[in-house]
């Protein structure tokens, strides 16, 4: 064999490895995107639920179409994007596309526009591939999938799902599913267990299609849909996500999977006599530790800059009204905590108003509406990791087209 022939033989395994890494079905429109994500500040991870409840039936949610808005937003932010599917556990996450940078870097604007058009088509095709993959189990573990897939550092996690999980610590396979009190118990007991989405800390979570399963599943009642929204909103806040947007708005429908596809065990919801109100739009969840010193309503150094950056994010959503709510943990007197939460909310309101946001109001909730309902440990000491969830400032908004 000649030296050239030997070199070619030696090169074949390397080329095969590169082809596997890039994905043999990667379209040309994705060229130049893969492997450019290292060290980037922004990341968007998209997860598509392919479990039976979201797939089996004559019609099912058309997630690929519903995701296009969020993929466009990721390109606008120049994020590193990964798109995958999941069903019954963290190990079922399969990538249709991983770590693709959407930053257009051509010298001329007309060429950058072509790059962005290619990126959009690349992500769209990846979403279609993710949606088309069959389930590997007859279960759905939404929290576990988030933990397996969410990138390190700041970023956005978008999950297209009916929100009906049936395994992991957030499983709805319980005779109490449907009760708001049961949500409080889950939020207390789940952190640290399998299926708790701890990877959401500091990230933005968007869930779309919640409460909208395929028509092979009995449609949830209005009360059950509201329960699912509250479950995922409270879970998101307790996991200390930066923002929580849980949408129960109907998504477009498409063809469902064949009857031979895996079906999930049914989930039954019980009625709640007095369901508490929920925030229908996105909730921005700010940790008090990031903004204030202990027992103080004075903004810490750097907090005002962080709030101004948040104001820029809020402004892009075109709000017509914004509300700031302060919260504390249960230590100290109720009167003191109420006053502290009011002053902290007013301080945040002042910064947002100065940044030019319209109609910003504020109020203090004190120790009401806790995310931690087990304030003390069995040994009598304070349950600090749990109490930390309660020390927060929540920001909600109203926009022209609806709540969010």
From TrEMBL:
<keyword id="KW-0998">Cell outer membrane</keyword>
<dbReference type="GO" id="GO:0009279">
    <property type="term" value="C:cell outer membrane"/>
</dbReference>
<keyword id="KW-0472">Membrane</keyword>
<dbReference type="InterPro" id="IPR006664">
    <property type="entry name" value="OMP_bac"/>
</dbReference>
<dbReference type="Pfam" id="PF00691">
    <property type="entry name" value="OmpA"/>
</dbReference>
<dbReference type="InterPro" id="IPR050330">
    <property type="entry name" value="Bact_OuterMem_StrucFunc"/>
</dbReference>
<dbReference type="InterPro" id="IPR006665">
    <property type="entry name" value="OmpA-like"/>
</dbReference>
<protein>
    <submittedName>
        <fullName>OmpA-OmpF porin, OOP family</fullName>
    </submittedName>
</protein>
<keyword id="KW-0732">Signal</keyword>
<feature type="domain" description="OmpA-like">
    <location>
        <begin position="279"/>
        <end position="401"/>
    </location>
</feature>
<dbReference type="InterPro" id="IPR036737">
    <property type="entry name" value="OmpA-like_sf"/>
</dbReference>
<feature type="signal peptide">
    <location>
        <begin position="1"/>
        <end position="21"/>
    </location>
</feature>
